[in-house]
Write a structure and sequence with these properties.
Oligomer: single chain
Number of strands: 8
Number of domains: 1
Largest sheet: 6 strands, mixed
CATH class: Alpha Beta
Number of helices: 7
Shape: globular
CATH topology: Aminopeptidase
Radius of gyration: 33 Å
Structural class: alpha/beta
CATH superfamily: Zn-dependent exopeptidases
Strand order of the largest sheet: 4-1-5-8-6-7
CATH architecture: 3-Layer(aba) Sandwich
Strand content: 15-25%
Length: 272
């Protein structure tokens, strides 16, 4: 009986020793796993990409439209300060293969995407061809959206097919409903014509002050109108039709808009 008791006691001791070793090994494994596991607190967040147009609201206006109202003789005031009128809806110029309205819309949609990529909010006056929208109504779209600036996109035409190049029209004169927009509009116009001409290699025709533009005279915010080139020039029309050339125009416009905002805020310009 005593011998049996000792055998049970020895077995119990060995069992305890075995359990202790397993626990120790498991504890060691747990410690090592804890020691080598990466701490969630030291994982760094990816840096946010800088977007220079964050918080800016920009109106993009692809000029002209296709509407049944065309040719019906509807007119609108050239200025809130004048009784003189101009046609509400104008078809624009055209080349051999593309109309101005089509080109304006294609570039306008690309500009919207490019500006949004830089952080801007963009309001479009139109995103389709078949719509009746006058120049005064285009101004209202910009004003009601709280836009900082309005960019009107157009192409040029001339009876002389050799004429070519890029220009930017800017507001001027005594018919402006908001004369205070002149200086900032002129500055953006100069920046834009220089940047787009450099990007495309097109002739720089400079800025052109205009007193007769409905979209200028009714505007309450800085505004410019880019003439991207002459659809009546066969060589320039071929370029304007291509997405590659359109992208060069858009890139130059975005660069100038960023530069314009930077100057207004006295922010050092980022090199592109």
């Amino acid at each position: 009986m005593l011998k049996k008791f000792f055998l049970i006691l020895i077995g119990a001791i060995f069992l305890c020793i075995g359990c202790g070793n397993d626990s120790s090994t498991e504890s060691q494994k747990n410690y090592e796993a804890t020691a080598t596991a990466p701490s969630a607190s030291v994982v760094s967040e990816p840096l946010q990409e800088e977007k220079p147009l964050e918080g800016k609201m920009i109106c993009v206006d692809p000029g002209h439209c296709v509407a049944p109202e065309m040719g019906k003789g509807e007119r609108e005031a050239i200025s809130p300060l004048s009784t003189e009128t101009k046609p509400k809806y104008v078809a624009g110029t055209s080349g051999a293969n593309i109309t101005e309205e089509q080109l304006n819309l294609a570039v306008g949609l690309q500009l919207k995407e490019a500006l949004e990529a830089q952080g801007a909010e963009v309001v479009m006056t139109r995103e389709v061809s078949e719509i009746a929208i006058s120049n005064i109504e285009r101004c209202k779209v910009a004003h009601e959206a709280g836009a900082d600036v309005a960019i009107h996109i157009h192409a040029d035409g001339n009876n002389d097919s050799s004429v070519h190049g890029i220009s930017v029209l800017v507001p001027s004169g005594d018919l402006l409903g908001t004369p205070s927009i002149t200086e900032e509009s002129n500055r953006l116009g100069q920046l834009m014509v220089d940047a787009v001409a450099e990007n495309t290699g097109a002739k720089n025709r400079g800025i052109s002050p205009r007193t007769d533009m409905v979209a200028f005279n009714h505007s309450e915010i800085p505004t410019v109108l880019i003439e991207m080139g002459f659809l009546t020039n066969p060589e320039e029309e071929k370029l304007l039709e291509t997405e590659e050339y359109q992208k060069k125009i858009v890139d130059g416009m975005v660069e100038s808009i960023i530069c314009w905002y930077s100057e207004k805020q006295n922010v050092p310009q980022k090199v592109f």
